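Data deposition worksheet. Section B asks for the primary sequence of the deposited chain exactly as it was used as input, without tags or linkers unless they were present during the calculation. Section C holds the resulting structure in token form. Section D is free text for depositor observations; keep each observation to a single sentence. Incomplete worksheets are returned to the depositor.
Section A, Depositor: J.P.
Section B:
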Amino acid sequence: MNLAKRAACLIGLALAAIAPSQAQLADKKALTLQIAKQVAAAAEQQAAANHLHMFVLIVDDGGNLMYLERMDDAQLGSFEVALAKARSAVYFKRPTKMFEDAVMQHGYNPVLKVPGAMPIEGGIPLLVDGHIVGAIGVSGGTPQEDGKSAQAGADAFPGIVQAH
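Section C:
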């Protein structure tokens, strides 16, 4: 009987030791600086084609600045706006145009009080397999111009990722 208790205890300890080792950390995709630069370049190319002077920013999945491009003659105030757009896109997992539409088209003004929400077009999340890995934020033109340049970067992103 004593031997059976000892065996059961040892089996229990062995199972307890195995269970935690089966837990694993999730694999997570992350932006690289090289990819961030290429995404920003696609947005900058769109802006330059339209003779615009913009800030183009790429943030990681935590909203931390990874890459910044300041085009010649870009207005300095656009830096903070572009950063806020990129962060909003990451924090709320949606383009900032959705917030703009909520306010402008639907009159949903409470959006203006949501901390971190930027209700101006130009911030777009960057996704891999449905998961946000970062975002692009663009500012320096009209909201629509910012949105077109940001969209150019976001549209280029899947091809850039596949090439790496």
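Section D:
The chain has a mean pLDDT of 91.
The CA atoms of residues 30 and 120 lie 26 Å apart.
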